[in-house]
Amino acid sequence: MYNRLGAVSPLDGRYGESVKSLSPYFSEAALMRYRLYVEVEYLIALSREKKIKDLNSFTEAQIKKLRSVYESFNVTAAEEIKKIESETKHDVKAIEYYIQKKIKKSLHPWVHFALTSEDVNNLSYSLMWKHGFEQVFLPEVEMVLKKLKSISIKYKNDPMLSLTHGQSATPTTFGKEIGVFYARLERQVTKAKAQKLLGKFGGATGTWSAHVAAYPKMDWLAFSKRFIQSCGLEPNLITTQIESHDSIAESYQLVVRINSIMSDLCRDIWMYISRGILGQKKIKGEVGSSTMPHKINPIQFENAEGNIGIANSLLTHLSTKLPISRMQRDLTDSTSLRNQGVGMAHSLLSLKSILSGLERIMINRVFMADELNSHWEVLAEAIQTILRKSGKEDAYENLKNLTQGQQISSEVLNKFVSELTISNEDKETLLSLTPANYTGNASKLVDLL
After folding, report:
1. Residue after which a domain boundary falls, among 365, 383, 405
2. Mean pLDDT in each 10-residue stretch from start to end of the chain (449 residues)?
3. How far is it, in rounded angstroms, from Cα 367 to Cα 369?
4. Which of 42, 65, 77, 327 is the most exposed place for a label (fewest CB within 10 A)?
5. From 72, 86, 165, 294, active-site residue
6. Catalytic residue flag (residue 251)
7. Residues 26 and 141 in one domain
8. Angle at CA 125, nearest 5°, toward 87 and 4?
9. What CATH number corresponds to the domain at position 315?
10. Which among 57, 230, 289, 390 is annotated as catalytic?
11. Which of 223, 220, 198 is nearest to 210 (CA)?
12. Is residue 346 annotated as a catalytic residue, yes or no?
């Protein structure tokens, strides 16, 4: 009996429960089912072509029975295909022989008719990625989006000190900073939803040579175009033996960009927790450290960052390797493509960790206020800008001399402002400024989300 404790990969072991939703799309059995789908639907499509007079059109009952081959596919069927493959030493040929066992002998020649394995494989792998992305990965991303927007709105008016280059800088609000990640992620999701994956169906070298030899009067280009579109993919009619993988590489890169934004979020949240701006809710029974009882470690964000690193390394490799194939084809894409689900699984793990981490964060308003009050030098930007407006040529230099590399108190800054020769209106504006209210349009920016 299989036990996850004996699994080599943590995806099948430790994290098996977290990524099991991807199994219907990226497991070995899933690949078999997708191949069966392509082969069966191709057989049905051939039967509907009037110019192929040697194959009668199937009745609705026959079509229903044929489709049951992949619709009722289960573990027993997968094991049967694996047994056939142990003899053929060819996974796609095993699929062909399996289908032949399910249909009458007169139809055997029409299974995999004039095809090369890559015709079946490229459609299968693209559909696996497309469906896994749409049904599992994207909904998880949208849950993160929803959570980020909620946090952004909740804290849009809560001021905090910014750090640029690790140094005190113009204040912002916590909600606005989280809103930045929401806006970045939403843009990538929009691009991802518009992404179209390509498919090819042109035979051994993309020329339909066997097809044309058998039925020269048949418009094989139009047929293939219709068939690929019926599968939910965009036709790529000019190829070698393999589909060039450019479109699926683009989709991998979209996931890499989504992951990179999430990694940036994880690092910032980690720093906010380390800095004291954020706290984390206690969970009963949870241990933060085996020796330090006080600890609540930001492990969700750390785990997410680690999984993103693995995912992006693999998906980047696939996106740069797959579009390269010697001459009309080599087989390096075959073993590589089997790992696309691994990249998505680590990406999914990271999203789940981020969601879990975001659920337990809470801002520390007292710390944020104290930190702001310790850095009145951030108002030097506003002062020198108003001085510039008043025509002061050495405005920047004056504030630089007063504040550069120093923490300035409110008393020092207000004394400096009081002695300026500027209009009363500008002076009142500057004297009313505090680090806490010097946040510009930060709150309004959240309303744009």
Report:
1. 365
2. 77 92 96 98 97 96 97 96 96 97 96 97 98 97 98 98 95 98 97 96 97 97 98 97 96 98 98 95 78 84 97 97 94 93 97 96 96 94 89 83 84 88 91 96 97
3. 5
4. 327
5. 165
6. no
7. no
8. 70
9. 1.20.200.10
10. 289
11. 220
12. no
